[in-house]
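Hi P.,

Sorry for the delay on this. The queue was packed all week, but I finally got your sequence through. Input first:
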Amino acid sequence: MVIGIDVGGRKKGLHAVALRGGQYHDKLATCKVDEMVRWCRILGATAIAIDAPCGWSTDGRGRPAERELMKEKIWCFSSPLRSKAIAHPKNYYGWMLFGEELYQALKGTHPITTVWPPVRERYSFETFPHAITWHLIGGNATARKKHVQRRKALQDLGIRTESMTNIDTLDAALCAYTAHLSTLNKATHRYGEGGTGFIIVPPMRPA
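Then the structure:
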């Protein structure tokens, strides 16, 4: 059992999809971190892949994983210093702080892995649906076509998407698929390093 979680702001909340044996099992949408953590534990998830930064900038620049993505022309958010996120007058980084709260709440049972491949029996890690899609379709994933591209990518993997009625659930399912790969010792692609956080995605499919 693996779980993927898409992190929005506190009002939008958390959307999660669970896969068992690589197939759709269940989903959950909630604004409460404790409810999400309880659901993950009840299901007995081995790996939890989360669409939110698992660390902060240490120098005011994007983390190494984010800079590596950008070099490959895969757009992503750049994580700021944590102090900057907290001080932002319009709470622009509120969703990142919400993600931090989720990682912290999972720490007791699913700590963030700082080595890859993971060595713990249960763990969490960061992933990114746009980069997942980019790798699955061989490049040129676009925000404009994300609903169509991401649903098709899941369907091409044999994952049923009928119950995934919004982009947040599709994104959670893509995260869950990446978690599934991580439990099978199958190839994945790693951006970044353990100190500031990996971003893990499937291997690049030939264009």
